[in-house]
């Protein structure tokens, strides 16, 4: 079983579980808030709502916005999924943004691919692969772990560049994900899942997402047939007896790696669609907890 098939499925399950739990908590909180406001607020409690276009940003917001622009570059984001994983190619409410140049596409992919979070992430993937003896041609021990670590890092980096920099530059497609941000859960989820098949071209028109589909297949082929283990004979505990370890450089393995990566990318883009809702919920809870005051007991 290839490394990505085992490790990506673990990640998919973890993300899906966290997302569903958070979404359920958010729906429960919204229902409670609606009931509470209906019971406690009267006509005299209503306050005029200032349109967003007329609201003045605080100095802190302006500073954060400036920092984001400087670090992320024009047309990209400084966001992180779950405040950790790079999410630099996801934009909220950005229907009229200009296309990225080839230089900008390579720059943002480089920034995400070599982000400090990636190194412990690849180390974790290599550890899981080592424990499950995925791709046994790598062997065990520190040498086998080092090979798996290098393979995991190379696989992820090649896939990132092929799907978000190289093919988008050649085919003039936009590698960014533009969140829908409104509508029902089903509509937003289906919209997000379709973005791996439908993307925006640099011209602004909708196109088939060759960058994701073809780029992912090319990345899986490059990695599988270049440095993944070949078929080999290894010694056994019985003197003079060798054991043959089949090659991982096969078409079926390449297809399996590509399919797993596509499924992982599809789930990830769904999480990206709902991440702003999850983030607002987390920050709202943090503000609520920080505002709790303890009243002294009276006798």
Radius of gyration over C-alpha positions, nearest whole angstrom: 24 Å
Q: Would you report the number of β strands?
A: 8
Overall 3D form: globular
Low-confidence stretches: 1-7, 23-70
N-to-C series of helices and strands: HHEEEHHHEHEEHEEH
Task: Please characterize this protein's 3D structure.
- It is built from 8 helices and 8 strands, in the order ααβββαααβαββαββα.
- The protein is mainly alpha-helical and 299 residues long.
- The strands form 4 sheets. The protein has a two-stranded antiparallel sheet. Strands 3-4 form a two-stranded parallel sheet.
- A hairpin with a 5-residue loop joins strand 5 and strand 6.
- The longest helix is centred in the C-terminal third of the chain and has 40 residues, at 251-290.
Quick overview of this protein structure:
This protein has 299 residues and is mainly α. It contains 8 helices and 8 strands, in the order ααβββαααβαββαββα.
Keywords for this structure?
299 residues; mainly alpha; two-stranded antiparallel sheet; two-stranded parallel sheet; globular; disordered N terminus
